[in-house]
Amino acid sequence: MTHALILGAAGMVGARLAAKVAGSGAIGGRKLDRLTLVDIVEPGTPAAIADGLAVRTMAVDISNPDTAETIVGMKPDIIVHLAAVVSGEAEIDFNKGYRVNLEGTLRLLEALRAAQHAPRLVFTSSIAVFGAPFPPSIPDEFHHTPLTSYGTQKAMSELLIADYRRKGFVDAIGIRLPTIVVRPGKPNKAASGFFSGIIREPLNGLEAVLPVDPDVRHWMASPTSAVGYLEHAASLDTDRLGGRPNLTMPGLSVTVREEIECLEKVAGKAAVDLIRREPDEQIIKMVDGWAQSFDARRALDLGFTTDADFEAIVRLYARDEGIELKG
């Protein structure tokens, strides 16, 4: 039997992963007997829990020096590390970004090394580790020149993940997530939040603000795909990674204009009319340094999958939120 621990289990992706794992009693086909859900605020207990699965929830701060030892002391066989300060907040609060995104990860790795406990660690990185100028399609081997503090913190963590795995201190894989769209609920502090907002708000009859040009292109995937990446990474034969444990997840290269056209197709012009252009120079500057498209063949060859098209992403969101679409 197996113990899985999800760091960041109160977040949108973490909560979805927790619900799926708790309901099935397994992660990536690997049966569990214990599931521990951890975040800076205590995660909710999943509504459905498989027979024989013990679920525990905890509120801890990964940046606290004692937290890593507490987590490692539970002897989890699988750790899914989603805990992070998001891009916009990490840019504004420099100290907090480094404390959580880099120091928290390093403390976890050091605690695993000290305990001589080497579980499967699924680390969620970001395509923000890459910075412009870019080729038309970015391979995994493209150099890391992040243009934000968040991207720098994730790039440094990727190097740590690779080194600690090389030394045998942890069985780690790092997955670079696309921007996750459409995020339900209220906007967070991520600079990329408008990619979700221009779909989510109009579908809920609310005004949305678009801070960038409609021709901005970006790499996206649905929350459902994000959960699938994490589950697959938790059970993947990591010997297949060789000496490169960090890789970019597959996704869709979509422009804001294409998002809006899709919105009109499924919800009508009235929904599109709720989008208001309001340029934001800080966001524009950040987005100008973001990647537009990736060659994710390595992840695809390893069995990772993603959404069929952007319309499928919108329809998934509407289905999950109980929103009736036009067609």
Main sheet, how many strands, which sense, barrel? Answer: 7 strands, parallel
- The helix content is 25-40%
- Chain-averaged pLDDT: 95
* Cα separation of the termini: 46 Å
Task: Decide which structural class fits the backbone.
Answer: alpha/beta
**Could you tell me the radius of gyration in angstroms?**
19 Å
Query: Looking at the structure, what is the overall shape?
Result: globular
Helix/strand order: EHEEEEHEHHEHEEHEEHEEHHEHHH
> How many β-strands, per DSSP?
14
The proportion of residues in beta strands is 15-25%
DSSP summary: helix tally: 12
Give the helices and strands, then pairings:
Elements lengths: L2 E5 L4 H13 L1 E2 L2 E2 L2 E6 L14 E6 L7 H7 L4 E4 L5 H6 L1 H22 L4 E7 L22 H18 L4 E7 L1 E2 L13 H10 L4 E3 L6 E5 L1 H13 L10 E3 L3 E4 H12 L1 H4 L2 E3 L3 H8 L8 H5 L8 H12 L6
Parallel strand pairs: 1-4, 1-6, 4-5, 6-7, 7-8, 8-12, 9-11, 10-14
Antiparallel strand pairs: 2-3, 11-13
Description:
With 327 residues, the chain is α/β, with parallel strands linked by helices. It has 12 helices and 14 strands. Strand 7, helix 5 and strand 8 form a beta-alpha-beta unit.
Q: Summarize this, please?
A:
This protein is an alpha/beta fold and 327 residues long.
From the structure above, extract its key features.
12 helices, 14 strands, 327 residues, alpha/beta, single chain, three-stranded mixed beta sheet, seven-stranded parallel beta sheet, 40% helix
